[in-house]
From TrEMBL:
InterPro entries: Transpos_assoc, Transposase_21. Residues 101-132 have a biased composition (Acidic residues). Residues 97-132 are annotated as: Disordered. Residues 3-78 form the Transposase-associated domain. It comes from the Eukaryota. This is Transposase-associated domain-containing protein.
Amino acid sequence: MNRSWMYGKRNTLEFMNGVAEFCKCCLEYRALTGYDELYCPCVDCANIYSFRSIETIREHLIRRGFRQEYYVWVWHGEKGGYTEDQTKVNEMTNITIENLSDAEGENNEETESESEGEGNDEDDIEDNDESDNVDQINEMMGEVKDHFSGRPRIFESLSQAAEKPLYHGCTKYTKLSAVITLYNVKAKNNWSDTSFTSLLEVLHDMLPDGNEMPKSNYYAKKLMCPLGLEYKKFDACPNDCVLYRNEYCMLNKCPRCGKSRYKRNDVDSNSDKKGPPAKVLWYLPIIPRLKRLFSIKANAKYLRWHGEQRKKDGMLRHPADSPQWKTIDESFPDFGKEVRNLRLALCTDGMNPYGSFSSQHTTWPVL
């Protein structure tokens, strides 16, 4: 659906009908969820402030217009990514948005050199990339919204962090996008929590007064915790013999080596006494992880690569070219025809099977 009317003239019949359609969507969302208040997506409220009266929201939209880049009504019950028409509108508007996948900022000042035309082309490409990243964060927020049905205050706090500028006048980063960008750099370069805290302290001091940059790793992590994926914790034997689940869930000591399930000191050796577990396994279920990956348009493209863009010439370049992969497709034809099908496979990590020191690959599938 083309929603270019959202940012056209507000005194036209098309805009009035569009606002009426939006208000109808809001009422249906309220009836479905039972929420008393609804977020207002006008320029000033920006989905931060909510109201009980739908007429108040309608009046705000007619007088002030919609906030920028709100083609997908994720805060009002709509799911999914941008359509092709919406993406074309984004490209025409050329609105500069924060880049969540790149920690380095680009200098957008105009130069007086003879290559001014080429620079403008690069700026257009950069604007489109940044618009794609806004698509990603909108899709991400829409994906995690269902997990906050019983915790509306936490979701409201998270949405405010996604809208609040990093400092007054900042148009490239919000509080949430800045923390996500920095945390990606931390993970990529294996920074310790202590060094990351030191960096945040320096950045907080360098930025203008009143900035929203967290001062420590603890507060940065606390901000992103609601975005975390589902996980489960299982007590484990200190010697990695068993997990205390299923038939072992009620045991207090390992059935194989006899070690206590709980931490013990030299004085207290009573194996029946409960306490902190000696070892804990953190399990990340695969299905929520795949759902989160497929919810981002850019990631979904790579997840479908083996079915849409892989070169099929009989050469063994990818696990999808292997006989094992083809056997599964033949055994389960409905599964094989689905381009989003994925396989879990065993691979080695840190071993170079061909002895080539120039190779940049560190993981190799086991076929």
